[in-house]
Specification:
A 5-stranded parallel beta sheet has the order 3-2-4-5-6. Strands 1-8-7 form a 3-stranded antiparallel beta sheet. Helix content is about 30%, strand content about 30%. About 35% of the residues are buried. It contains 5 helices and 8 strands; from the N terminus they run βαβαβαβαβββαβ. It is of the alpha/beta class.
Length: about 180
């Protein structure tokens, strides 16, 4: 198995900083409150870090939520006979808010579809945008990211791993063939 490092350490953190700036640029004052919702697993620490980077730029810390999409997957039976459902924590009013869904990798779009379905069970946001660290293509649904850390041309057989300090002990984007 061959691993290619796409970004790590300071370069990885620079991508997060740029993404935070892009979110702030598209979030003028007077609009509904901004919230970041991380899709489990690695979307959660990414959302928390982005909130910390956005706070000084926006003058307010965005609300943060955590979303588990396990029961909303369209391949639930194929993935596990007894799926492990983790907690979802949305500690703010979803209705009329402006939400940025945060995930590590955008691939087929099915995870995002499941996340949107799960999110609207909590209310009707005014707007939902998508932020990903990596867009690797191969979409199966008409879904796109509004904020992209990096785009990679991949084969269907390759995998992209986003490692985060909180889960993996280091920040990195890896292409695995």
């Amino acid at each position: 198995m061959q691993q290619t490092v796409i970004a790590e350490g300071a370069e990885f953190r620079g991508i997060l900083e740029r993404l935070a700036s892009e979110v702030v640029e598209k979030s003028p004052s007077g609009l509904p409150p901004l919230a970041l919702v991380g899709i489990r697993t690695r979307g959660v620490p990414l959302a928390k870090r982005l909130a910390a980077l956005i706070e000084p730029k926006l003058g307010a810390r965005p609300s943060i939520g955590t979303l588990d999409i396990t029961l909303y997957r369209d391949d639930l039976i194929a993935v596990a006979s007894q799926p492990i459902v983790r907690s979802t924590d949305i500690p703010f009013a979803v209705g009329n808010s402006s939400i940025v869904l945060v995930d590590d990798v955008l691939f087929t779009g099915r995870t995002v579809r499941a996340a949107i379905t799960a999110l609207v069970d909590f209310g009707r946001p005014r707007k939902i945008e998508l932020l990903v660290m990596v867009d690797r293509g191969w979409r199966e649904l008409p879904i796109h990211a509004d904020y992209v850390g990096t785009r990679l041309r991949t084969s269907r057989e390759q995998t992209v791993q986003v490692l985060v300090e909180e889960e993996d002990g280091r920040d990195a984007i890896l292409l695995v063939a």
